[in-house]
């Protein structure tokens, strides 16, 4: 069970962050802040203590805190973010996580974004993407392997991160986009496949006994309603415009 979440307030120039989603329109800072507040309130409503970091103007993507660390009960792995414009965001997050967990680090030439890392029970799936390379996965496997976790590297052919397309929604069930549904490495799991046009909602966030899912994806909502978990919908329009999703906006962990 997660007891804590770390988030960062989006900075005023968050729209200068990296994005491939310009067709969704211009991001609105006021609306982004309100949607971020609703996200924090949802986490608090689920009983989590939320640690909020201040905005960081030099890094317009820095509120996507998930990418700069992977936190397990035993260790917090500080990543080496794969996009040069984002590398440096980890500097201010590491000391905060260091209050709760021993730290380990992915070092160059290894690169990794936390958005590529999915934990299901004691098994990590790590996407090999434009942000995460094989050396990053090798270092990560060495760190978490020492604590009894296994690691499977999975090529990400489409989309930004592995968790843009695959997420754990409880038990042995994964919510996946059609692009990932045929992967051999996911055999053995029950796959819920997002309907056409609802791929964005594959980034649904499991927090203890609840699922947080983006508003506006009725097909995905119908799929996850059958899982027996509480479902919370949040409007993610401004985050989606910057290629981000629900998982990216926090680091969840147990203390
Ligand atoms: C980026 O391109 O790095 C950000 N604009 C979005 C990061 C989203 N993070 C995530 O999916 N974990």
UniProtKB/TrEMBL annotation:
Gene3D superfamilies: L-arginine/glycine Amidinotransferase, Chain A. SUPFAM superfamilies: Pentein. InterPro entries: DDAH-like. GO terms for molecular function: amino acid binding; dimethylargininase activity; transferase activity. Belongs to the DDAH family. It comes from the Bacteria. Keywords: Hydrolase, Transferase. The active site is at residues 161, 248. GO terms for biological process: arginine metabolic process; citrulline metabolic process; positive regulation of nitric oxide biosynthetic process. It comes from Alkalidesulfovibrio alkalitolerans DSM 16529. This is Amidinotransferase.
